[in-house]
Amino acid sequence: MSATTNTLISAVADRRSVYALSNESTISDARLEEIVQKVLLAAPSAFNTQSTRIVILLGNNHRKLWDIAKTAVAPHVSGEQAKATNAKLDAFQGAYASILFFEDPSPYEPLAGFKMYADKFGGWREQTSGMHQLLVWTALEAEGLGANVQHYNPLIDEEVRKTWNINPKWQLLAQLVIGKPVGDLPLPKDKKSLEDRYRVIA
């Protein structure tokens, strides 16, 4: 196994959900943009549809996202649950930035003739988005940033579209919260044995 392969796998293995984040960054905004752009150009997609769309929210726009989330969630929680939820949303808001991952179904429209695959398109878009999320997350952690992935869609979708004039066809799938880690990083998680997770058929 080459050194490059080991480095890549180690970077993925070291990635953690980090929730204690400050409103600082270990890299410049220009470097953040560069990484996201490189991921968009490098990550694969079904039929090379390149359907992933990414929006970076910085500064007041990042904080606005979590105001939107607070408003959207409020009718669904009460009492102690509301307190816990608000504390969690405050922590996200106190981080440095948010990265929104969307999928655009439009690139799949020319594939409508592939009837035997049509019911798979939605799943393929989610797989594509997952690959982009993992790559961005891993790359940013390698740069010293902490991150955690959230899913407040569909509660926030409409307000997000209106606030930032997002194409109405784009489907919001995830929100990556990033910032400089505060305190100790999370410990490695226990992994299940490979015995029931892996086979070789020769």
UniProtKB/TrEMBL annotation:
GO molecular function: oxidoreductase activity
Any one biological process term the GO annotation gives: cellular response to oxidative stress
Domain Nitroreductase: 13-180
Annotated Pfam families: Nitroreductase (PF00881)
Keywords carried by this UniProt record: Cytoplasm, Nucleus, Oxidoreductase
Gene Ontology cellular-component terms listed: cytoplasm; nucleus
Subcellular location: Cytoplasm; Nucleus
Keyword flag Transcription regulation: no
Main location as per UniProt: cytoplasm
Keyword Phosphoprotein: no
SUPFAM superfamilies to which the protein is assigned, alphabetical: FMN-dependent nitroreductase-like (SSF55469)
Family: Belongs to the nitroreductase family.
Name of protein: Nitroreductase family protein
